[in-house]
């Protein structure tokens, strides 16, 4: 009786939206099994069931997509166009079912068909078209946009291979191609009617008009075809279905015609290969700029396709009247990767629509807004002017013109100050002339934002200081968020159900409602239920760990989790040094007082990032040793889970007790994993960096373990000449640990294999202050250890963490973008 009621309340928010019954779903799935998959109930394996189920869900999705597009067209709505080189979508089945309100019914329907929905969903490959935080943020944002009934379209690249699949061989990372579409992607729809032709290379001809005007004509040397694939984005409640439009490159028939006629059939095939290379593979570097020609072509290719698409749609409603363009279209640049869209729009307006510069600039500078995601100098994009000249000769001219006019403005504001001009110029006059895409983005946009309070302050103060004086108010903050539909409702069903029982089922769209849970933070029964769910999630993860690595974890251990890209600034090696400290303390004193703890890592290193790969290797070697050392392995375990990705995050996050967020202060722009873990009741051990600061404000200092240098202290330490040897020479423990790495203790017979980690922290100068923060970190960990032993106290802290995460829904982020930057109005569908 009670059970039936709970099921009802869990689906009541959406039940009225679809009259679809469980039997309808069964019929649809079986129909697709027969008619789309050409198999039957007896022969079908999980993969066939998965495809049939997707097809059945997609029918529902497409109906809503049609009504959404009709509503947007009829209302001629202003829309945001989210330009991003990355969309890290993960799997779509569970998400779409939850957002349509069909999850429970489909689960039952499949059970009656004799298959388990959870197993079937495991068949879906992740859509890993992104590196990490930036790409996942884009995915959360388009979920929120659809949920809030906002007209929006995501534009990106249809990579044939997403982020590489990571395998661990003898402790080392090896990269394998990701082939997410090998057996077809049931969610995407090809739209050949919207193909675009994109010019590249060639030269610019200057023409003089009869009234003395100068016209420029770009004669491209090559043309590629952009083929759009649409992925429907289902809002929670299933009303609005927006699209993510991803462009695939193909050889243009038009271009190859000449070669073909000249008898160059084989040469024409070579052209095909080149054109099709553009969308072949996602660059696997997060936060480093490779400066490769193909990468610039990727960026231009998807921006040019998307702009043509937007303009075609605008013209359908407004003809050649450009006056309302900036009222109808806003384009958000997700970092500088799509910044080339700025000169591309100006080129279209000036060269193609025949506008004068002033009118074109007026439109383009009211169309673009730019989000900055990092302060790390190695991630700030700069393109050699020579490369732009070769690939996009007209765009380089336009960039020079933008800069020329901007320099006049700077001269007006700071007459005669050449130092400021050098700093603000789009052109960096180094030995090789470089184009600074960050400066171009700030100059060409009407709004610029950072992604957490502290990050936005540093963007203003350190990255673009004089820009703030030129355009007060243009630089602002929008703190990142995460979608609670994927990162709580879908990934942690037991906790979601418990929450709904206590505070109702409105929290997925009104996350501040979670604060109602604080009323039960001291309620014994609730604490027990909350921690039982955590325990069950740990049991489930332990089973997964056993299958993936062979390591056995006791779910009574503290599950301490660090999951994120591998980067020196994120300091996985600080975590590792602390693990080594615990190991050493346990060897010196078998009764060393600590609650048993399992340290779990998930991280991919950029394939060319040597030290990052060395750190993965070191973690694995230390893990091997500790896990097999019977003197300590009842108290200490270390696990490196291979191939960290969205679907693995969904299994790890609900099982975490402790969340490691330990970047050097000032380096992590925001972080979003920090929000996901805290939302699922993990306590943060973290620095005063990125959104950790805002998480600490929300949960209160007694419910988080903050440690380490502040941004100001970091700056001072660097300015005063930091010498890591001072710490090494004065700390017995640190010295012993670092020296240990050089022995063959962890790599029997191969001393020195882990030496690069030590080297980077001593002769390498320890640029991320690992040693400087070590003692504070170790102390914070000890506090966490003591706190965990107080069962009720810990349960209270965990509950408060979940209860106070309301601020971090991506719905709040999107509302801020809408009110302060995009100025959109919702368009209700049906
Ligand atoms: C990325 O994931 C992030 C920043 C980048 O700067 C590039 C990539 Cl691939 C160019 C991350 C930040 O490191 C992280 O702090 C932030 O939360 C995330 O973007 C989303 O804003």
UniProtKB/TrEMBL annotation:
PROSITE patterns documented for this protein: PHOSPHORYLASE (PS00102)
Keyword hit for Glycosyltransferase: yes
Cofactors, names only: pyridoxal 5'-phosphate
Transmembrane spans: none
Keyword Glycosyltransferase: yes
Enzyme class at the top of the EC tree: transferase
Annotated keywords: Carbohydrate metabolism, Glycosyltransferase, Pyridoxal phosphate, Transferase
Catalytic reaction equation(s): [(1->4)-alpha-D-glucosyl](n) + phosphate = [(1->4)-alpha-D-glucosyl](n-1) + alpha-D-glucose 1-phosphate
EC number: 2.4.1.1
Superkingdom as given in the UniProt entry: Bacteria
InterPro entries: Glycg_phsphrylas (IPR011833), Glyco_trans_35 (IPR000811), Pyridoxal_P_attach_site (IPR035090)
Entry similarity comment: Belongs to the glycogen phosphorylase family.
Known function: Allosteric enzyme that catalyzes the rate-limiting step in glycogen catabolism, the phosphorolytic cleavage of glycogen to produce glucose-1-phosphate, and plays a central role in maintaining cellular and organismal glucose homeostasis.
Name this protein carries in UniProt: Alpha-1,4 glucan phosphorylase
Organism: Lacimicrobium alkaliphilum
